[in-house]
Design a protein that fits this description.
Blueprint (H helix, E strand, L loop, with lengths): L14 H9 L20 H12 L10 E9 L2 E15 L2 E9 L6 E8 L5 E8 L5 E9 L3 E8 L4 E8 L10 H11 L3 E5 L15 E8 L3 E6 L8 E5 L5 E6 L4 E6 L1 H7 L14
Antiparallel strand pairs: 1-2, 1-14, 2-3, 3-4, 4-5, 5-6, 6-7, 7-8, 9-10, 10-11, 11-12, 12-13, 13-14
Length: 283
Amino acid sequence: MQPMTNDARLPKLNLVATVMVGILAASVVLAWTTTRTHKATTSGGAGIISKLTDDTLDSYWTTERKERWFIGKKKDVEKIDWTMRSSGLKSPGVFSGYSVLGNPGGSPSKGEWTIRTDLSSGYYVGRNYGPDEKPVSETHITLTKTHVAVTVIHNKHGRRFNSTSPRPKDYMPEGTFHLIMGLVAAGGEEVRVKMILDDHAITRRGSVNFVDVRLIPLRNNVVRVRAVRPRLMATTDYHLDSNHNVYRYEYPDMGLVYRMEPRQSVMETFGMSEDEPAVRSAP
């Protein structure tokens, strides 16, 4: 999530930091295994979270582990960076996922999450890596039935910040974002939820920073994601297929578009090999 400082990479217009807010912002590291999306019968973010808790994630997701790869492009730049996300059943009653953002000549940012099928507990960690492949910064989120605990670590300066808060009823657990978008698309009404962004996980006063986010269904199965305080994250439009899986997402204010591509195509485009750490999924 750190902006690029190498002048040779300025065509990115310092987009990496903004893009990472959308990709590794805790709950944007999500499951791609949706099999069907039930229409929400209760309105509002709290209603949708309650519905998922009652239904359990097993009602929506298959157990198969899947990967999806994307290439990010701008009109005046052939390729910006790439992302990969995978998810599946980790153990009985527990789903897990992994994501990575890579860029030419840069260091990757990664995220991992686990969530119980009844949303009773979960864990997330997002890491930004330096050239030595060691984490520069980390954001940890631990979810229980009643609380959300956040730890932010800045390894370079040896600083660590901790905060715990009661769990809001409309808090979107890490790993469920795309599923909730599918419910919003099916319901056809705007929903507001709370999420935690890696770059803004703890406020200056030391409290957990829950960001209010609008999920706005548009035409053609597109859901717009916009923070109530827009300076915290870029507006993103997610294009969903008939099974409510994301096949494209874009930042309309920046002209940046991510399109799904075959794994081999991404690797060839960016000159990657199978044994690169950024390519391998977490266990």
